[in-house]
Model the fold of this input.
Amino acid sequence: VDVARQAAQSAGSLDALRTALDAYDHCELRLGARNLVFADGVPGARVMILGEAPGRDEDREGRPFVGRAGQLLDKMLAAIGLSRTAEDVSRAVYITNVLPWRPPQNRDPKPEEIAMMLPFLQKHVALAKPDVLVLMGNISCQAALGQRGILKLRGHWSEAFGLPALPMTHPAYLLRQPHAKREAWADLLSLSARLGQGR
Ligand code: URA
Done:
């Protein structure tokens, strides 16, 4: 973790942070991954979305949220006028994950892996400078809030890395449990209302 902290601290830009991650070889996950999955969307966007870890599709493409969960995420964002390709930063999102490498067989990240990569995440948020964070699922809440229990946390604004943060159920969960989409919709409206206030 000390090595990670040093590597992360010395990065003065998002590009430098990506390079530092690429050079960081103390996390075993990278051995089983094809690609580093750093981020997607618009740096400088008001909303930063934090997922869990790359899956198979993300690992192949080197971009976060490009598989089925990512397609659902894009639809959810579009419903409140947000997108990862918008030119206007107030309509754009920036997307990353707690872990930049795919865990073998998509297993859950281990607490040590989350802790090891946390300095990079912290720095990533500081460099991206969003107004708000959206924490997708348990792993994201674990990393950013130090808490699990997404079904209780979701929909309640909290604070992470010094920013307002909204926990939501992960889109992969919504694909398995479509009935939970009603609550996710309420959470999207809460996000939209928050953004409306700050405009
Ligand atoms: N699930 C995540 O949490 N992140 C991704 O990038 C893809 C799926």
User: Anything to note?
Assistant: The two ends are 38 Å apart (CA to CA). The first strand starts at residue 40 and ends at 41.
